[in-house]
Every structure is written in C-alpha cells, then in structure tokens.
Amino acid sequence: MEIRFKSSECNGRELVKSFNKDFETSFLSEKEYSDFKHSGSGIVKEIHLNNAFVLFQDQNIQNSENHTIQVVQNHPVFLLQIVIDGDVTFSFNENICSEFNLNKNMYNLFYIPPSKNVYKYLNHKKRILNIYFTAPFLECKMGTCFLKNSKKYQQAKKENELCCFFNKGLVLNRQLRNIVNDFLTCSYGGVIKQSYLESKLTELLLIALASNDSDSIINKLRKEDRESLVRIESYIRSHLETELSIKNLSELAGFNTSKFKTVFKQVYGIPVFQYITSLRIEKAMQLISKHDYTIAQASYEVGYKNPQHFTVAFKKKLGYLPSQLINNGQ
C-alpha cells in the first residue's frame, strides 16, 4: 500500500509513504517536518500506529491562493478528516466538478478508492488532522453493520467512487476537541505512548462516527443557522477574555435566546455557559503549564476579573487547585 503526498508549498516536494496491508505495524513511528522557510511556518507531523496512519498539519501559509496538496493512493482507504482551523476543498480524482468542502470546526468520514486527489486550502492558517485506515479497522471498531448498512458506501465501493458519509459534515464539539487535544499532546513515551495513542484513536473514532443524533440535528438546521452556530462557537473561542452573555451571543447568531440555548446544547452537548467555562479553564491550563503565566495573569486572560473566582471554578471542574499545575511543572 502506498500514499504519495505532493505539496505546492514545498516546491513540489513529494512525500512517499509505503505501508504493509491495512497499515499493519508492530511499533509506533513518528516523524515531524518543519521545512517551510519559503512558504510559511509550522509543522507537519505523521504518526503511524497499528492499522492507522495519522497526518497532522499545523501551519501558517504565506500564499493560500496556490496552496494545494496532491494525494495519490494505490489502495482504497477511509479518511477521517478533522478541520480544527482553516477551510479545505477536496477534489476527487482531480475533478473540480466533484468537490467537497469542509470548514473550520467540522469533520467528515470519506471512503476513497485508488485515486489521485487534490486538497486546496483556502486560509493562511490551517490545523487539520487526517486519519487514514482501511475497512477491517473500521469494522473492528464500529462493527460490521456500520458499513453493511451504509447504502452510499456499498454503491461507492461497487462503482469505485468516493463516498462522503456525512453530507454536510459534523460539528467538532467540545468532547471531540478534548480527545483530539489529548491525542496530539501526549507526553508519555515508548510502549505506554503507543497504547495511549491507540486507545485515544479508538475513542475518537467511536464518538465521532456514533454521532447520529448530532448529524440529525445538524441536517435539520437551515444552512444559514448551521453556519451561524459554527461561527459563534469560533467567536467564543477567540473572545474568551471578554464578557460573553447569552443575549449578545444570540444576537450575533441571529437567534432568539431560547432557540440559541436549545440548539447550542443539542449540537455541542452541554449548555453554552458550561461550554464557555470549560474553554476558559482549558486555555488557562495551557497558559499556566506551557507558557509560565501566573494564575492571576491566566485568569484575566480568559475573562475572569477576580482570580479567586477563577480558582473556585477551576477547583469545581477539575477537583484540584490551579496552583498544582505550577507545582507539577517544577
């Protein structure tokens, strides 16, 4: 099995990856690339686990107009693509008439037969997690009925065409974001790291693909409402230091307050204020543990006017004091 990645951002440099059947391997393999001096900054990280190959792109590109990656594969694969930041257009077999779009804070599952495909990135910044695997791995995790009951997949397989499992994509909710973050920031080593990453990958796959209720909710929303909800979630993330009220967020989304609270909880799994608190504590943890912020500095940075109020919220959610982050880091 072989997958070739050819990127326009690296002067046409081609990355060729060869694998055993079904991505089989007995050990964890990791590589990282950061040679983007003439086109931008960031990293591309690859992780090869047993039965899965993961490619994580975290980059800032100088010229997004011609930013493309061509992917050629000689074996059918499944791709779980998670767009944390940026927007991507996927052209199957280089045919611009069969394009699929995936926006920020969304994900989708694709079945891709042997083909030559092009991914075009529409923003300067991108953070995208691509997880490749084959049918036996998916059936092992989700059961054989997942594929047997998918008429779209069965038809696509028969006609050697691409299959997009979720027409409009699904929202990357907080639960999935946390799993993705755990997967990408694992600090273990050796065999423990391999076991941890494999367990997190299984958890991510199960929760992402078992989101039938969320899919139904999203599909029932008008396109404008769905886009508004994703936009507001992004707005919340980028304005954690400000006062965020239900009234203002509802107005920005174009909903009345009742509808906004109801739909937000249905799609993201928890009430909006609980979601905001979780994001604030998550960001504060990173500022304290990775960027040497004091507790007071971190609390102000995520919107708490009183550090004591932040400490109370932190302790209530996680069961320990934020000062322990500093002590553990020494």
UniProtKB/TrEMBL annotation:
Pfam families assigned to the protein according to its UniProt record, in alphabetical order: HTH_18
Superkingdom of origin organism: Bacteria
PROSITE patterns (UniProt xref): HTH_ARAC_FAMILY_1, HTH_ARAC_FAMILY_2
Gene Ontology terms, MF aspect: DNA-binding transcription factor activity; sequence-specific DNA binding
Domain (HTH araC/xylS-type): residue spans on this chain: 230-328
Keyword flag Transcription: yes
InterPro entries, per database record: Homeodomain-like_sf, HTH_AraC, HTH_AraC-typ_CS, PchR_regulatory_protein
Keywords for the protein's UniProt record, in alphabetical order: DNA-binding, Transcription, Transcription regulation
Name of protein: AraC family transcriptional regulator
